[in-house]
Amino acid sequence: MAEPGEGLPEEVLALIFRHLSLRDRAAAARVCRAWAAAATCSAVWHDTKISCECELEGMLPPYLSACLDHVHNLRLEFEPSRKPSRRAAIELLMVLAGRAPGLRGLRLECRGEKPLFYAGRDVLEAVHAVCGAASQLRHLDLRRLPFTLDDALVLQAARSCPELHSLFLDNSTLVGSVGPGSVLELLEACPRLRALGLHLASLSHAILEALAAPDRAPFALLALRCACPEDARASPLPNEAWVALRRRHPGLAVELELEPALPAESVTRVLQPAVPVAALRLNLSGDTVGPVRFAAHHYAATLCALEVRAAASAELNAALEELAARCAALREVHCFCVVSHSVLDAFRAHCPRLRTYTLKLTREPHPWRPTLVA
Length: 374
Description:
Shape: globular
Number of helices: 16
């Protein structure tokens, strides 16, 4: 009797299996010898997503341990409030640290709420271990890790991961503990770094100058989050430094996220005319109309995405209409307040590249769903 997989070549089976969850890959590997060979080949595991909530509990499955050598890019999801999920994530990271030479990308995502008074030290120690072992690591994304990141982690990456192309530390923590000094060391140790995500307090004039150095490789993305008290107290960055950086890297895109912790005087220091803002997210406790108007006047050539969370008002409607008329390159706009019909008409009329928008004319139950432009 023919085995189920005999009619399909291994490369076709691998193409199918790479889209399966971890649990389904394990089930496929038990069907027959042909499927087992395909389910454990490197092509299936090159880009892998693992959810510790539903796929790993307790001991690391033997079949996964055997395939970790093939993982180049890992997206690991876990729920810190559930101990089994957290333990599984830590165990996987520690095993990976022991055999990580081939790892190229690591993205960690926490689901659900963080337990009260839990600082995530055990998770961060596991991340340290992976960084120390993965000398070929090129992409590290910790934006969805709700723990305080520090200089030690940045310096570990600087010492052990010279091939880094992107590093995102702009997470949702309420305390910023990464200083500009460690970021400067990172830039010196990782000359190929092209994308960097930071809290505003981690940025400095010296960092902008280092990025603008003549021998620096092309730099593509700087994501800045302004959400903690340290960000509000950050030193101002002169407009001239942004002018020099933009001249050195004409294709640079800056993403700005301004949260309620940022007072009005800090907002004016952050929004410099020469910053090439491609994405602007405003969730301010104070004035939002002023920043929207500022963006309309100074970011018209670069702004591609806008998100606004504010109270509805006639003044905000007028500012949004002005922005729509000036920012023709916009691809998405999301306003989480009711807007006037004239605002919707303005974005439809003046933004031909618009692909998705959230512009509600009446209150609706949350969550508000965006509209896709055909």
